[in-house]
């Protein structure tokens, strides 16, 4: 074996080691991304399983709609993440006031076992017909009630 054969084999060996390191880096990155995505999905599902809400009362007697809902899950919820639909129409978040019914103060966080009062500025509803209110949280948990 001459020097040219040893040099060629050394170059091939270096190329194989470099290529192997590149493939390993790609697979390691893929594995990290997959594990991160699985962790995010697990956190989302855990949050969804810990969340439960119930509409406890709907008052439309005075011409103004008042909806009372209770967080019966284990997850505290942001009141920014609550959406309300009345008869299938989305009631925007801005004119919806979310308050503590006992004190009347506006809420930012909806804690476990707390009841909140929603005062949406919905269009006037027909008195003689059945309507539906649906409350949805950020992670997709919802409750609806006919009134």
Structure description:
The structure is a single chain. The protein has 147 residues and is an alpha+beta fold. The protein has two domains: 1-50; 53-146, Immunoglobulin-like (Sandwich). The chain has one helix spanning 3-50; strands spanning 53-59, 66-71, 77-78, 83-86, 89-91, 97-99, 109-110, 115-119, 132-136, 142-146. A four-stranded antiparallel sheet has the order 1-2-8-6, with no helix packed on it. Strands 5-4-9-10 form a four-stranded antiparallel sheet, with no helix packed on it. It is rod-shaped, with a radius of gyration of 28 Å. The mean pLDDT is 84.
Architecture blueprint of SSEs:
Elements: H1 3-50, E1 53-59, E2 66-71, E3 77-78, E4 83-86, E5 89-91, E6 97-99, E7 109-110, E8 115-119, E9 132-136, E10 142-146
Antiparallel strand pairs: 1-2, 2-8, 3-7, 4-5, 4-9, 6-8, 9-10
Average pLDDT confidence is 84
Number of strands: 10
- The fraction of residues in strands falls at 25-35%
Low-confidence stretches: none
By DSSP (H or I, 4+ residues per run), the number of helices equals: 1
Structural class: alpha+beta
CATH architecture of the largest domain: Sandwich
Largest sheet: 4 strands, antiparallel
Q: Roughly how many Å is the radius of gyration?
A: 28 Å
Q: Main attributes?
A:
1 helix; alpha+beta; 147 residues; Immunoglobulin-like; rod-shaped; 2 domains
Could you write a compact summary of the structure shown?
The chain is of the alpha+beta class and 147 residues long.
């Amino acid at each position: 074996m001459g020097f040219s054969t040893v040099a060629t084999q050394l170059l091939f060996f270096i190329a194989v080691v470099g290529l192997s390191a590149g493939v390993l880096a790609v697979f390691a990155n893929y594995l990290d991304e997959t594990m991160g995505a699985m962790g995010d999905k697990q956190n989302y599902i855990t949050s969804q399983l810990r969340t439960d809400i119930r509409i406890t009362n709907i008052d439309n007697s005075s011409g103004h709609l008042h909806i009372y809902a209770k967080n019966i899950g284990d997850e505290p919820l942001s009141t920014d993440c609550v959406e309300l639909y009345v008869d299938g129409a989305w009631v925007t978040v801005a004119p919806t006031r979310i308050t503590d019914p006992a004190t009347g103060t506006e809420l930012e966080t909806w804690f476990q076992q707390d009841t909140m009062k929603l005062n949406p500025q919905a269009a006037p509803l027909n008195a003689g017909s059945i309507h539906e209110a649906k409350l949805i949280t950020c992670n997709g948990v919802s409750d609806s009630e006919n009134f």
